[in-house]
Amino acid sequence: MITRLLLLTSLMVFLLSCKDHQKTKENVSIDQLTVVAPQDSVPFPSELTHFQTPAENPVFTGTGSDTWDQKIRERGYILKEDGTYHMWYTGFQTEKEPLSLGYATSLDGIAWKRHDNNPVFNESWTEDMMVIKVDGTYHMFAEGKNDVAHRLTSTDRIHWTDHGSLDMRNADGSPLSEGPYGTPTVWRENNMWYLFYERNDLGIWLATSKDLKVWTNVQDEPVITMGPEAYDKYGVAVNQIIKYKGWYYAYYHGTPFKDWSLWSTNVAASKDLVHWKKYLQNPIMEENRSSGILVPDGDQFRLYTMHDKVEVHFPKSPKKN
Asked: Domains of the chain (ranges plus CATH)?
């Protein structure tokens, strides 16, 4: 009798467990499953990577006449503030003379007006610049002569003070070896300044500073290297860092040729500013449309490429089915 009861009890437990299991299977659908992305999955949203170039380009060039800015070159920089676009650019006639700083404004980012008192700064060689505003002061980081980076400041965007070349240090605090450290690009977060720079375009290094005086490498190896793909095999330099939906994005130019005869605009992403993954569909702009930067435009971004003319590129419209 006891044996029979035990058998019946075991049978009931088995049947109930099968029913619960079946119920669980029936209640789970593909819509309820949580898809977990791999840890190394990096988002490259289309609003940051897909742009189209309208026919109304270029939007800004050298004058082509006998002026100080007969030609322009390298990276310029654009900030949009209070409905006005502000652009700083490098102008020259011959590359042997000191390169000077120009300033222009626009209400739509397309039609530009040069400042009446250009060049706004010509006391030292200034090219390939970027600008960041902190607590009412504009900080400009630019290349000086021999591609050595220096910092300038202004409170009105027009009158600039040069604070001299940056004091660069290796990770152990020793002075950086002699040579260029150019295309300076700065990001600021939590009272720390992050400086991305290149040395002969052979890689991109990262240094930090708390006082804007001494800049110390995070590591003595590049954080972004050339290659392995062909489009940036022979040269790289960062033009801008942005933060978007929790990720950092570096817009950089690269070249596939040893003679640097052709450049493109590319994107890489990072969570910590040190470890970067390049966009698999790089480059996002070719045909010497380089020195690219994003400028916020309402709820989207514009992409401007700068060298050796300024062109604007708008987000591609979503494809309709």
From this structure: 46-315 (2.115.10.20)
